[in-house]
Write a structure and sequence with these properties.
alpha/beta, Arc Repressor Mutant, subunit A, D-Maltodextrin-Binding Protein, domain 2, 3 domains, five-stranded mixed beta sheet, transcription, sequence-specific DNA binding, DNA-binding transcription factor activity, transcription regulation
């Protein structure tokens, strides 16, 4: 099936598709949009004809997305979000308000630093702030697609075509339940990696990010953890450690930025560096009020992370050194 390359999709069809994906049924989508179910069905079928592939598997009233439908949904969600952002910006211009800020951030950065950064804006906090959480690769994509004004993520990340506003460094930390022997024994001294020879290691499993740095540090000391629990979230790791099932090694933004009762944060005897930054698309033009978020973010990092160090974001060789350090 073919279509004209310059075909413009009907926004109503895209909204119907997004609603059907969100609700899991045409009937639910109709309720959400306030239109009839036959109209939703027709709009989705029209969209399938336009794109040239099936978006849903249909079994009576039940629908489930096809693989292509799932991939297409990511693009539709991005587009609809962008249209809503345009509307918000237009409202701000018409009403002479501070322009909205659209932020893309990883979950750790959003949970640990966005609240304090927005608070630090004071009177410069706009009426509308849009915060979307996603993994680092999608943060970069959102900046390049201009669906976000600013992005916050940990390094390493692909930074070609992006402007760096803030680059921070700290160290990974250990988190243990406060009522455990480990917490009592190390309340005034760093935790050696050797404890993981007999203690369950709880950490994030992405081999290309902090897990790689942890594995390198353990390998250099010949330590092979006997037991492990791997997850995709530092906060998950902290909550498991809180149950007394082992010791977590996590990023400092989550550990210090999202306080959890019943745990003790311990420095590691072997420093494992952790870098993160605030970036934007290189040619993005910001209103003065939006650029004040840069200073507010620095304030949040300084006040939240005890040993936060700031690097010169204009140092062209800095990110190469960071990547070499983290991927050695």
């Amino acid at each position: 099936m073919s279509r004209e390359n310059d075909k413009i999709f009907d926004v109503r069809s895209l909204e119907a598709f997004q609603a059907a994906m969100s609700c899991g049924s045409m009937t639910g989508a109709a309720r959400q949009l306030g239109i009839g179910q036959p109209t939703v069905t027709r709009l989705v079928k029209d969209l399938e004809a336009d794109v040239g592939f099936q978006l849903f598997h249909r079994n009576g009233p039940r629908i489930s997305p096809t693989d292509r439908g799932l991939r297409f949904y990511e693009e539709v969600h991005r587009l609809i979000s962008g249209l809503r952002q345009i509307r918000d910006h237009a409202d701000a211009i018409r009403e002479d308000r501070l322009p909205a800020i659209d932020i893309a951030a990883t979950p750790a950065m959003a949970g640990g630093l966005i609240g304090p950064a927005l608070e630090a804006l004071g009177a410069d906090l706009p009426d509308y702030v849009n915060l979307q959480t996603m993994n680092a690769e999608y943060v970069v994509r959102a900046l390049r697609n201009r669906t976000a004004d600013l992005g916050i993520a940990a390094f390493p990340m692909e930074h070609l075509g992006l402007a760096r506003h803030v680059i921070c460094e700290s160290r990974l930390v250990a988190v243990v339940a406060s009522d455990t022997p480990l917490a009592r024994a190390h309340h005034d001294r760093p935790l050696p990696l050797s404890v993981f020879a007999n203690t369950r290691l709880i950490t994030v499993g992405n081999a290309f990010r902090i897990r790689h740095a942890i594995d390198v540090a353990l390998g250099e000391q010949g330590i092979a953890p006997a037991r492990e629990l791997s997850t995709n979230s530092s906060l998950n790791a902290i909550m498991v450690a809180r149950s007394g099932l082992g010791a977590a090694i996590v990023d400092p933004v989550t550990a210090f930025g999202i306080p959890v009762d019943g745990v003790t944060i311990l420095p590691l005897e072997t420093p494992v560096p952790y870098f993160w930054g605030l970036l934007s698309e290189a040619n993005r033009v910001f209103a003065p009020s939006q650029m004040r978020f840069v200073g507010a973010f620095r304030t949040a990092c300084r006040d939240t992370i005890p040993d936060c160090t700031f690097h010169d974001p204009l140092d062209a060789s800095l990110l190469k050194r960071i990547e070499q350090m983290l991927r050695t």
